Amino acid sequence: MQRRRRTALAVSAALLAAAPLLTACGNDSHPGAAAVIDGQRIEVATLQSQVREVREAQLAAPEPVRLIENTERLNLAKLNGMIFDRVLTRSAADAGVKITRKEIQTARQQAAAQSGGAARFAETALQQGGLAPGQIDSAVRREVLLNKLAMALGADTMTPHGQQKVLAELVATSKKLRVDVNPRYGSWDDAEVKLVGAKTPWITQLTQETPAQQPPSGI
Q1: What is the spatial distance between Cα 106 and Cα 140, in angstroms, rounded to a whole number?
Q2: How far apart (Å, rounded) are the C-alpha atoms in residues 209 and 39?
Q3: Beta-carbon neighbour count of residue 16 at 10 Å?
Q4: What is the pLDDT of residue 160?
Q5: What pLDDT shows up at residue 106?
Q6: In a domain, 209, yes or no
Q7: Predicted confidence (pLDDT) per residue in 93-103, tens digit
Q8: pLDDT for 3-54, tens place per residue?
Q9: CATH code at 57?
């Protein structure tokens, strides 16, 4: 146990030491920004903060080294989700869809009950979705909002036709928002509504990300 803890802490120290490298980017038209969506910036510092929250939660969990190794592209997954959320939020607003705090809380409680309790739900969210406890509500919001958008569009997401209808709406919104990604993190594909082609020399690319139109929620 002591050896595993030392190994995990060593991994954490290496990750934190490398963090400043993520802010440097040649030919960057938006210094300090990981992405710009419709003129609104997602700061590199904000992205790093989300990644750090997950790493800290992973280090406090059983088998931290395995969790960290399984999420080596965490910064890309987080940026992907952050951009997707901006696109989804605008699509929902354009469709007149609103979401309340109560709806998010109810959905989370239902998901927790189905998972065997709040503690088990949080554990699964961290293991399978790369979500720190403080990030779970945002993931639940995404799921609820996506479902409400589908309903507003009259799309049955259990069918390919319905899925394509929702995707088409998100694609149209994505194009309007003119997503501009820092080249270090790749580029944004409007047609697939996801981050692609990231150049990440500091990361061993061992995993494949879930398509952005259905980002991992961990629930």
Answers
A1: 10
A2: 26
A3: 13
A4: 94
A5: 97
A6: no
A7: 999 999 999 99
A8: 443 333 333 333 333 333 333 333 455 778 999 999 999 999 999 999 999 9
A9: 1.10.4030
d(CA 178, CA 52): 28
Structural domain tally of the chain? Answer: 1
**Portion of the chain with pLDDT greater than 70, in percent:** 77
- Closest to 138 (Cα-Cα) out of 56, 10, 46, 201: 46
- Rounded CA-CA distance 100/69 in Å is 36
Partners of residue 40 on adjacent β-strands: 37
Q: Is there a domain that residue 118 lies in?
A: yes
Which among 95, 40, 179, 1 has a CA at the least distance from the CA of 212? Answer: 179
160 dihedral zone (left: phi>0; alpha: psi -120 to 50; beta): alpha
Residue with tokens 């190994």, as numbered in its chain: 7
Helix (H), strand (E) at residue 34 = strand 33-37
Run of H or E residues at 188: strand 187-189
> Distance between CA atoms of 184 and 168, rounded to whole angstroms?
28
Number of other CB atoms surrounding residue 178 within 10 Å: 12
Q: What is the mean pLDDT of residues 57-61?
A: 95
Cβ within 8 Å of residue 30, ≥6 positions away: 36, 41, 180, 182
Question: Does residue 207 lie in a domain region?
Answer: no
Residues 168-207: tens digit of each pLDDT: 999 999 999 999 999 999 999 999 999 997 554 333 332 2
Q: How many CA atoms lie within 13 A of 24 on its CB side?
A: 6
